Amino acid sequence: QVRLIQSGGGLVQAGDSVRLSCSASGSLFANYALGWFRQAPGKEREFVAVGSWNGDSTEYADSVKGRFTISISRGSAQNTDYMQMNNLTSEDTGVYYCAATFRKYGSRLQEEFECWGRGTQVTVSP
């Protein structure tokens, strides 16, 4: 069983940077790929980024490509994934979720993720 704990986020201004963290408990976490999704107010949850289980492969939504970067830290005492978000705009406002999947190279599809964090709010003021 994998449990995902999220941290980071908050209220920032346009152009600022934020780093989100997703820490996992459970011995199987090293074999999981981790994805990031977000839900803006009044909109459906959407794909943001995904990284493979070993960090060798990453994919990003076009809207965040070049501004967001994901990284992993696995196999240590604390398994934590990060998403660095730079040059934020008001369009990036939303609740951000991390999610884990057994598919080693991840997916852009939410239904293919087995375990979800509770989400963390990011609000970008103009």
Task: Describe, in short, the structure shown.
With 126 residues, the protein is mostly beta strands. It has no helices and 11 strands.
Largest sheet: 7 strands, mixed
- Give Rg in angstroms: 13 Å
Kindly state the percentage of residues in helix: under 10%
Order of helices and strands: EEEEEEEEEEE
- Average pLDDT value? 92
Structural class: mainly beta
Strand percentage: over 45%
Separation, N- and C-terminal Cα atoms = 40 Å
Q: What does the overall shape look like? A: globular
State the low-pLDDT regions, or none: none
Write down how many β-strands occur, each being a DSSP E stretch of 2 or more residues: 11
Number of helices: 0
SSE diagram, text form:
Elements: E1 3-7, E2 10-13, E3 18-25, E4 33-39, E5 45-51, E6 58-60, E7 68-73, E8 79-85, E9 94-101, E10 115-116, E11 120-125
Explain what you see.
With 126 residues, this protein is an all-beta fold. The protein is built from no helices and eleven strands. It has strands at residues 3-7, 10-13, 18-25, 33-39, 45-51, 58-60, 68-73, 79-85, 94-101, 115-116, 120-125. Strands 2, 4, 5, 6, 9, 10 and 11 form a seven-stranded mixed β-sheet that branches. A four-stranded antiparallel β-sheet has the order 1-3-8-7, with no helix packed on it. It is globular.
